[in-house]
């Protein structure tokens, strides 16, 4: 597979090259040059496969010829053996029309493990082959950091530095990052907010001269194509289990950066029978405003019960724009230039196309809590606040349009990650951590507090890269 940039100016790249960078050189995001297709006979075969074998079939076309199938199989088997459920991503029926796709059985209890367990192993394989060392630098408001650390903690070729806003992430989230005891893992608590952390990371990617000789920075947020690729698999897995190879299902996706739902869109492009993809947002609702009012504009960030979806701008939306504008990089460049002023508007045609594919709902904290509480009382199922937004959106859309059933709502995190939200929902229960994390609060923490200053962060990174 070859990869092209959404802005049409960067050179075509291979899978390995795309894996080991962040943005394309023209500022765009990498997407596959063409989309592999499964016909109905092939879908019927895929429907019988266990998760890891399905993963191999779905991902092989994206990594060949850089990786052969035997190599990919080894990495996939190892990555998904880390999950606590035999099915990896089991599907549970909530009621007659809504099913829940459980994506939280990985080491850090959020769906990001599905991609980052594989990503860490892909890095290690490719870097070993090239005898190359890299530096992973990322900012996290919660789940990405711990999932990336878990995915890379064993790598001899990666030094990983994760910035989080000091005293502004939940205790479970912080401890998941800071209790990992590996010489290549470095947690930096920045005396600032998440935006400050992101700005520092962005500046570092822009000028990498501070790194030791021969090193480069690699991104682990969802601008990295390999993350999206790994997430396509569970759409096939759940869609084929609930709808089979013939019947179309809909998906409701709690989304922030548009990464997860973009993977669902790709599954549909690859031939999976998908009816509607429901964009489910919290009060940071730029995507919902885009679809309902053609208003894709920055607004001030609001802290919510679902912190992993608290974003101002959805970086992966650019990948969809590329398709909505017939894969024309010039159009995307113009739109993104317009967006430097803080807002952009789709053409009539592009908006019409987006509305054929997507529906959208927005849940505020009150609606999120009410959904957690109602589902617990009626179905005896405890949702985390992010997953609750997906279920809320599924139910709201089903009410207006019952023909979109069945809807599979993505459960993106385990409720034990967000005990405060469980209490805020009025539920007098303590969600318990799974056994492999039961001693999380007894483990030793390691992190370094640094001022909100890019130079100090760069100095720290340079000083702590292994030789
Ligand atoms: C990251 C995250 C999301 C949002 O995913 P995107 O790919 O940014 O849309 C939703 N829920 C949880 C629990 C997350 O960690």
Your description of this structure?
With 467 residues, this protein is of the alpha/beta class. The protein has a domain at 83-109 and 225-424: 3-Layer(aba) Sandwich (Rossmann fold), CATH 3.40.50. The chain has 18 helices and 15 strands. The protein has helices spanning 15-19, 40-46, 51-63, 69-80, 112-130, 143-152, 171-178, 194-206, 225-242, 259-269, 286-293, 317-324, 329-339, 348-357, 365-379, 385-400, 419-424, 454-464, and strands at residues 3-5, 30-32, 91-93, 98-102, 134-139, 158-165, 185-191, 217-218, 249-254, 274-281, 296-297, 343-344, 358-362, 407-411, 448-451. The strands form four sheets. The chain has a six-stranded mixed sheet with strand order 3-4-14-9-10-13, with helices on both faces. The protein has a five-stranded parallel sheet with strand order 8-5-6-7-15, sandwiched between helices. Strands 1-2 form a two-stranded antiparallel sheet. The radius of gyration is 21 Å and the shape is globular. The mean pLDDT is 96. The chain binds pyridoxal-5'-phosphate (PLP). Pyridoxal-5'-phosphate is lined by residues 110, 112, 143, 222, 254-260, 308-309, 386, 412-413.
Q: Which structural class best describes the helix and strand composition?
A: alpha/beta
Shape: globular
* Order of strands in the sheet with most strands: 3-4-14-9-10-13
Indicate the CATH topology of one domain. Rossmann fold
Number of DSSP helices?
18
Question: Which molecules are bound besides the chains?
Answer: pyridoxal-5'-phosphate
Distance between the termini: 34 Å
Question: Would you identify the CATH architecture of one domain?
Answer: 3-Layer(aba) Sandwich
Into which percent range does the helicity of residues fall?
40-55%
């Amino acid at each position: 597979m070859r990869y092209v940039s959404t802005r049409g100016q960067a050179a075509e790249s291979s899978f390995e090259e795309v894996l080991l960078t962040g943005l394309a050189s023209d500022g765009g995001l990498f997407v596959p040059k063409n989309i592999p297709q499964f016909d109905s006979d092939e879908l019927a075969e895929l429907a019988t496969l266990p998760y890891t074998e399905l993963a191999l079939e779905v991902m092989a076309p994206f990594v060949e010829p850089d990786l052969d199938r035997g190599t990919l199989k080894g990495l996939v088997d190892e990555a998904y053996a880390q999950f606590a459920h035999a099915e990896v991503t089991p599907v549970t029926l909530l009621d007659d029309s809504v099913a829940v796709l459980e994506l939280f059985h990985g080491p850090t209890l959020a769906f990001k493990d599905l991609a980052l367990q594989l990503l860490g192993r892909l890095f290690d394989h490719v870097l070993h082959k090239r005898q190359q060392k890299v530096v992973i630098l990322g900012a996290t408001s919660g789940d990405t950091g711990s999932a990336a650390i878990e995915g890379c903690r064993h790598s001899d070729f990666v030094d990983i530095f994760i910035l989080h806003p000091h005293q502004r992430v939940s205790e479970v989230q912080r401890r998941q990052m800071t209790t990992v005891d590996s010489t290549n893992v470095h947690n930096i608590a920045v005396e600032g907010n998440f935006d400050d952390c992101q700005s520092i990371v962005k500046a570092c990617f822009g000028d990498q001269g501070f790194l030791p000789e021969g090193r480069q920075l690699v991104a682990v947020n969802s601008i990295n194509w390999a993350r999206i690729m790994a997430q396509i698999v569970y759409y096939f897995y759940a869609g084929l289990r609930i709808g089979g190879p013939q019947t179309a299902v809909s998906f409701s996706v709690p989304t922030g950066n548009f990464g997860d739902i973009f993977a669902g869109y790709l599954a549909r492009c690859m031939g999976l029978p998908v009816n509607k993809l429901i964009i489910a947002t919290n009060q940071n609702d730029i995507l919902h405003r885009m679809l309902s009012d053609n208003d894709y504009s920055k607004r001030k960030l609001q802290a919510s019960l679902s912190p992993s979806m608290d974003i101002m701008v959805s970086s992966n939306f650019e990948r969809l724009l590329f398709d909505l504008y017939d894969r024309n990089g010039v159009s995307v460049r113009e739109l993104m230039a317009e967006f430097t002023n803080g807002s952009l508007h789709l053409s009539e045609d592009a908006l019409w196309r987006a509305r054929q594919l997507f529906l959208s709902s927005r849940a505020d904290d009150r609606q999120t809590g009410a959904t957690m509480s109602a589902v617990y009382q009626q179905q005896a199922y405890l949702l985390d606040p992010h997953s609750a937004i997906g279920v809320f959106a599924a139910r709201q859309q089903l009410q207006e349009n019952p023909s979109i059933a069945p809807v599979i709502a993505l459960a993106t995190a385990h409720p034990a990650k967000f005990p405060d939200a469980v209490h805020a929902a009025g539920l007098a229960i303590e969600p318990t951590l799974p056994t492999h994390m039961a001693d999380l609060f007894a483990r030793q923490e390691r992190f370094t507090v640094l001022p909100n200053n890019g130079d100090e962060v760069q100095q720290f990174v340079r000083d702590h890269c292994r030789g």
